[in-house]
Specification:
Protein name: Ferredoxin
Radius of gyration: 10 Å
Domain 4Fe-4S ferredoxin-type: 1-31, 32-61
Strand order of the largest sheet: 1-4
CATH topology: Alpha-Beta Plaits
Number of helices: 2
Helix content: 10-25%
Number of domains: 1
CATH architecture: 2-Layer Sandwich
Shape: globular
GO molecular function: 4 iron, 4 sulfur cluster binding; metal ion binding; oxidoreductase activity
Largest sheet: 2 strands, antiparallel
Keywords: 4Fe-4S, Electron transport, Iron, Iron-sulfur, Metal-binding, Repeat, Transport
Oligomer: single chain
């Protein structure tokens, strides 16, 4: 599984809806930029994809 973050569309520290809602704590921030910290924790629920207001996150299986 691959989680893609389109950084041109991601608002990073100004949004973080995905970080807040992810039940598996996959995301984190470094220097105000969203990162994938624990990819192995991802269960593929796509809640992050659904909640992103800018469609900046996608998941490939």
């Amino acid at each position: 599984m691959i989680i893609n973050i389109n950084y041109e569309d991601c608002r990073g520290i100004d949004c973080l809806d995905c970080l807040d809602i992810c039940p598996m704590n996959v995301f984190d921030t470094v220097d105000d930029v969203l990162i994938i910290k624990k990819l192995d924790n991802c269960c593929g629920c796509q809640v992050c994809v659904d909640v992103c207001p800018n469609n900046a996150i996608s998941i490939e299986y």
